[in-house]
Amino acid sequence: MGEYETESNPAIYANLESNHVKTQSELMKPGLAAGWTLDQESVPSNSIDIPTRPVLKSTDSVYTEPTRLDPARPTSGDARTTLFNFTPPFRTKGRHIIDAAQVPLRLVSINWYGASDIDFVPGGLDVRHRDEIAQLIRRLGFNSVRLPYADEMVRANPVIDERVISKNLDLHDGQRLVPARALDVFRAVVESLTAAGLLVIINNHITQATWCCGANPCDAGWSNDWLFGKIFCRVSQILGADLRNEVRGLWGTMHWEDWAKAAERASERLLAWNPEWLMIVEGISSANDLTGVRRRPVQLSVPDRVVYSAHVYQWSGWGQLYPYSRRTYEEFAAAMRENWGYLIEEDVAPVWVGEVGTPDEPTDGDVNYWTHLVEYLEEVGAGWGYWALNAHKATGEGELWLGGLAVGLALGSLGTSRMVVGQ
């Protein structure tokens, strides 16, 4: 394994195919997300069902929504669950994240990447102002945003090309004499998101800024620039730190016990800055495997701070010859239960499924995986994070993901409205 955290460098973490391919329109029926109404006059014929008027109340630019009940989902004795109307700070209690009012919070998240990639900034800042994007995310029904970044972004803090922030040139000084740097942009995005009433989860995604994750041996060494811990330690709506994306040693090897130790050391340093943050610890094997928690949980000096995280795609699970895209629901649910679902079902700890997603033109296998995933998430009441708000890589290359704009506009696709508390 790589050296994930070393005592010799205390500044590191401390600083921090089928014949029929379903179309997007076919996937996005029926149903709307909780809290939405549909203005039929505003939807052209032959279009997908797009909710155009969010039924959300606002007070001083912070949206709230009445607490809703979901009688179909197990609550382990808690009758209330909040989606939007929460009160920081947060802690864990058994399978739940709970707020200061003791109300369980279900994370309905979107990933907004880019600061971890070659442009060093969240994608889309050349299309819309960051405040508009934040409000859009809020209106779409998400309550939280996972913001990935790269170590290189923090260490180098490069000057940002105006081309990639062309709709956010207010990030320069008044005369545009002082160019914006990567940390300036990241901080401004966090401020816009929290001002919109969204919770933010900061994720150390990769070592060198690029699309995650290739065969770069640098990713076997976790030189994690959690300088962000100091920068954001007093922002109340930062929920916490997703310590590292899809942990892996050299060539993908990693033992849970080694990762758990490193996660504990990193968490202790962050909690010294803000003991109210949640520490989000991903599983091994592309974040799909949390079986090791049963024998060796992550234990911290500040209690009730650990949230575990899994990533589930149709291909998830390294070395599997029987991908999720081909499994029955019973087989899929059994795998989820073994890998991470037991933590929820046995009321051990919260699990946030921080990355899920489908391509823009999914195969029947993708649809099979997605249908089963939605059903299982509803069965256990797990929070989740869709990948991603921005559908393309920074280069414009690669697979086109069904972006957050589309999935948020019709969270009812394949039953995803049930992924939102209250449906």
From TrEMBL:
Name the InterPro entries for this protein.
GH, Glyco_hydro_5
Q: Where is this region: Disordered?
A: 59-78
Gene3D superfamilies in the record, alphabetically? Glycosidases
BP GO annotations: polysaccharide catabolic process
| Domain Glycoside hydrolase family intervals | 130-392
> What's one GO MF term for it?
hydrolase activity, hydrolyzing O-glycosyl compounds
Q: Which SUPFAM superfamilies match?
A: (Trans)glycosidases
UniProt entry keywords in alphabetical sequence: Glycosidase, Hydrolase
Q: Give the PANTHER family listed for this entry.
A: CELLULASE FAMILY PROTEIN (AFU_ORTHOLOGUE AFUA_5G14560)
The family this protein is said to belong to: Belongs to the glycosyl hydrolase 5 (cellulase A) family.
Name of the featured protein: Glycoside hydrolase family 5 domain-containing protein
